[in-house]
Each structure stands twice: as structure tokens, then as C-alpha cells.
Write a structure and sequence with these properties.
With about 60 residues, the chain is of the alpha+beta class. The chain is built from three helices and two strands. The radius of gyration is 13 Å and the shape is globular.
């Protein structure tokens, strides 16, 4: 999170983060953003409604 904060403070492009909406992963992210002072608009949350779809997108991203 400290690296992410430094990235945001350096004015680099908005990060996209995949998560499940309403899941503990999203809640953990938003709590950590608040804890480290990372503004909500500093990242773009990309929501999946299905865990398998999120895993498949991750797999495709890292294989190609």
C-alpha cells in the first residue's frame, strides 16, 4: 500500500484494480485506501460479479 500511495502521489496514470463488488476484498481495499490516505478517485475499481470470471480475466492477463 505504501508503494501504491507513492505511485498515486507521483501523479502517475490511474491504476485499475479488479475486485468483486461487495466482497471482503473490496471492503479491505477501501479500508486500506482510507488508512493510507489514497483518494477514491486515484484508482479505478473494475467490478466482477462472478469469482470465476475474475479468475479467468486474471489468467488471460498473465498468460498473454
Amino acid at each position: 500500500m505504501e508503494d501504491m500511495k507513492a505511485y498515486v502521489e507521483a501523479g502517475k496514470p490511474t491504476l485499475k484494480i479488479d475486485t468483486l463488488q461487495g466482497d471482503t476484498l473490496e471492503l479491505t481495499l477501501t479500508c486500506e485506501f482510507d488508512k493510507y490516505g489514497i483518494p477514491e478517485d486515484a484508482v479505478e475499481l473494475v467490478y466482477f460479479n462472478d469469482l470465476l470470471a475474475m479468475v479467468e480475466a486474471f489468467r488471460i492477463l498473465w498468460i498473454t
